[in-house]
């Protein structure tokens, strides 16, 4: 019997499903743009060979047993890993922590699976779909030791601000899935979004700032440079990290 979280490779005639929960939960405001992206041969190869073991579809149909998936390790959820280089680096640096890495970006999923295989990382699982559904429907209360949201899509146009991930409603949901004392770590190079993050996190009753001055945190040494961060730095953007703790209440 395969473990409960295993799913068959999702390659249909049109390629992988970009958002498996779509038809069941279609009244969502999505924080991502559903799109088809080119998948390289090696990414496709990794998806075909490794998905059944290390991948899972976010279809909202079952509650995951994280203890069984990660061999009892504490588990951190990363939302939006992009191409996954920073995720793989963090998994290698901290093999005693499990990383549940969620994104809708198929090339990145293949890339991260390939990186995990090449580097012998058994503490990563790649989740395909909307992390909101993962949090809401598939993760038990207080099951996460941490949450990482690095360089989420900034949605700069005003009419798109509702698509930004870091909002009060999201924080309320995330707080229920984080264990007391767990750290929510956000980073962004988009100044207005950094200000919004600081404002909504500071105002939220379930979180407290780890910084005594109530401001941004120095970039922690454990967070590698991400691909989007590099692009932002090239444009002269300033990067802000935010480290907030789930209150014990
Ligand atoms: C701007 S990219 C940053 C990627 C990476 N963290 C980096 O810094 O290079 C944001 C990523 O978040 C993903 N994303 C946005 N909303 C998401 C959601 N609700 N669930 C899963 N992934 C999401 C997007 O697909 C995209 O790959």
UniProtKB/TrEMBL annotation:
Organism domain of life: Bacteria
Composition bias type Basic and acidic residues, residue spans: 1-11
Pathway noted in the entry: tRNA modification; N(7)-methylguanine-tRNA biosynthesis
Residues reported to bind substrate: 157, 189, 226-229
Catalytic activity: guanosine(46) in tRNA + S-adenosyl-L-methionine = N(7)-methylguanosine(46) in tRNA + S-adenosyl-L-homocysteine
InterPro entries: SAM-dependent_MTases_sf, tRNA_(Gua-N-7)_MeTrfase_Trmb, tRNA_methyltr_TrmB_bact
Class of the enzyme per the UniProt entry, highest EC level: transferase
Stretches with biased composition (Basic residues): 25-38
Record keywords: Methyltransferase, S-adenosyl-L-methionine, Transferase, tRNA processing
An example Gene Ontology molecular-function term: tRNA (guanine(46)-N7)-methyltransferase activity
Enzyme Commission identifier(s): 2.1.1.33
Pfam family, one: Methyltransf_4
Region span, Disordered: 1-40
Keyword tRNA processing: yes
Binding annotation for S-adenosyl-L-methionine: 78, 103, 130, 153
Family: Belongs to the class I-like SAM-binding methyltransferase superfamily. TrmB family.
Task performed by this protein: Catalyzes the formation of N(7)-methylguanine at position 46 (m7G46) in tRNA.
The protein, known as: tRNA (guanine-N(7)-)-methyltransferase
Source species: Streptomyces antimicrobicus
């Amino acid at each position: 019997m395969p473990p409960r979280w295993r799913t068959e490779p999702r390659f249909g005639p049109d390629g992988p499903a970009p958002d498996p929960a779509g038809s069941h939960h279609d009244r969502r405001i999505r924080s991502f743009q559903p799109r088809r992206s080119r998948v390289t041969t090696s990414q496709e190869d990794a998806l075909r060979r490794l998905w059944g073991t290390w991948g899972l579809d976010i279809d909202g149909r079952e509650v995951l047993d994280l203890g069984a998936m990660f061999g009892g390790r504490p588990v951190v959820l990363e939302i939006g890993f992009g191409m996954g280089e920073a995720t793989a680096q963090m998994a290698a640096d901290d093999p005693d922590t499990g990383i549940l890495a969620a994104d809708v970006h198929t090339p990145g999923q293949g890339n991260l699976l390939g990186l995990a295989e090449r580097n012998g990382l058994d503490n990563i699982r790649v989740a395909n779909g909307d992390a909101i559904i993962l949090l809401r429907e598939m993760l038990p209360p207080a099951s996460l030791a941490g949450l990482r949201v690095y360089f989420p899509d900034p949605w700069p146009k005003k009419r798109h601000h509702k698509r930004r991930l870091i909002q009060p409603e999201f924080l309320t949901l995330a707080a229920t899935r984080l264990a007391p004392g767990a750290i929510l770590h956000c980073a962004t190079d988009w100044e207005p979004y950094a200000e919004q993050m600081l404002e909504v996190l500071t105002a939220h009753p379930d979180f407290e700032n780890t910084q005594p001055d109530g401001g941004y945190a120095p970039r922690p040494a454990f967070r590698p440079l991400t691909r989007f961060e590099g692009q932002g730095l090239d444009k002269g953007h300033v990067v802000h990290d935010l480290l907030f703790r789930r209150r014990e209440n």
